[in-house]
Methionine adenosyltransferase 2 subunit beta
Amino acid sequence: MEGRYPDLRIRFRPGHVQVVQADVFFPNRRALITGATGLLGRAVYREFKDNNWRVLGCGYSRARPRFEYLNLLDTSAVKEFICEFKPHVIVHCAAERRPDIVENHPESATKLNVEASSNLAKVAAAAGAFLIYISSDYVFDGSNPPYRVDSVPNPLNLYGKTKLEGERVILQNSDNAAVLRVPVLYGDVEKLEESAVTIMFDKVQFSNKSANMDHWQQRFPTYVKDVASVCLQLTERKMQEPSLIKGIYQWSGNEQMTKYEMACAMADAFNLPSSHLRPITDEPVGATPRPWNPRLDCSKLEELGIGQRTPFRVAIRESLWPFLVEKKTRQTVFH
Ligand SMILES: NC(=O)c1ccc[n+]([C@@H]2O[C@H](COP(=O)([O-])OP(=O)(O)OC[C@H]3O[C@@H](n4cnc5c(N)ncnc54)[C@H](OP(=O)(O)O)[C@@H]3O)[C@@H](O)[C@H]2O)c1
């Protein structure tokens, strides 16, 4: 094990503190994160690592050098990987999450979002690992919010359908699994296009050009660090009370915003002008259909005392600061 995952060995550096990550210090605390190279997976990996879990993150095209390469479509590789690492929890973040790509590549998206999830659930169940499957508010049609965990799903697009089917196969193949539905995510992005929220920032900061912004779809932008904390809290509670945690959960930020309102809030957070932003109140046409307001009711987690919410203004500033072009003039204001 230590040969295969060298970052988990005990290292000694003369005159320095030991860097220690070994089973003897983290008994029963091994976590496997799929999609650890992605937006949410990176935050979940960090959250578990910072809280005394021995964590293994796996990725696909971006796996090396930081993470382990694991193609989730390779069923025997998945089995071998889990049998070797023996995780106590698996947080399954890997998915094809871009609705337009799913529409255009239905077969490969279904393989990853549904078939790979089904296989992972079977292997996790056989290994006795608690599995958290990250799902989406797009399982709902958004016409009659808010949506409770037991509200009837009705996905409008193929992405939502594959996530719903993913939920079904997870719960069917493991009685030691939880589904966690979340809405649109943002956080520390490698590039602005990585999140449907941060992607708007260049239109916000380059104010010499007017920009149309959707003002019809109602969203609840949610910070990945908050979701990561919820995954950790859910896992810790599961370890304390195994029979309590199972089934479907939902977590979401509580600030309702359209994309136009998010863009204005970004401008405000950096003291930038917003008069070039134009709200478009008509329902978008022609694109992949998306729900109007898929607001998630989070009371099931709140009643367990589980949750974390960072205000949008604070979290978006933290996330976008590296991408702010005019850093020098804004620096004195915020840092
Ligand atoms: N982002 C959102 O706004 C949002 C909203 C609601 C729900 N969700 C859900 O939240 C979860 C995380 O989303 P995200 O935004 O973090 O996604 P993301 O940034 O697009 O990351 C997707 C991850 O899947 C991995 N992956 C792709 N193909 C794979 C394969 N064949 N084998 C193994 N791994 C593979 C990618 O690895 P490489 O990059 O290394 O190839 C990457 O780590 C998903 O389940 C998504 O449906 C996301």
About this structure: The pocket of NAP is lined by residues 35, 37-41, 59-63, 70-73, 93-95, 97, 112, 134, 136, 163, 182-185, 194, 196 (CB under 6 Å).
